[in-house]
Design goal:
Layout: H1 3-19, H2 25-48, H3 56-73
Helix pairs in contact: 1-2, 1-3, 2-3
Length: 74
């Protein structure tokens, strides 16, 4: 998968998780596990492509930037 594809899935998971009601804790747990998996894939792909990030929060911020740039070019 490309960096853009991974970032898009990761951002979609963040957005979807926010829409799950708090009382649906099983669904939130599953979504969190999937989001974590894609976050790790995102950071690994960023390292492969030489994109620097200071921590996981910075990597998330950069994922949003990647998607924003990709959307602007579409």
């Amino acid at each position: 998968m490309s960096l853009v594809e991974i970032a898009k899935i990761y951002i979609d998971l963040i957005t979807a998780e926010r829409e799950i009601p708090e009382e649906e804790y099983h669904a939130k747990d599953r979504m969190n596990a999937l989001r974590t998996k894609y976050h790790e894939a995102l950071m690994e792909k960023m390292r492969e492509e030489g994109i620097d990030f200071s921590d996981r929060f910075d990597a998330t911020h950069k994922a949003f930037e990647i998607i924003k740039k990709e959307t602007a070019h579409s």
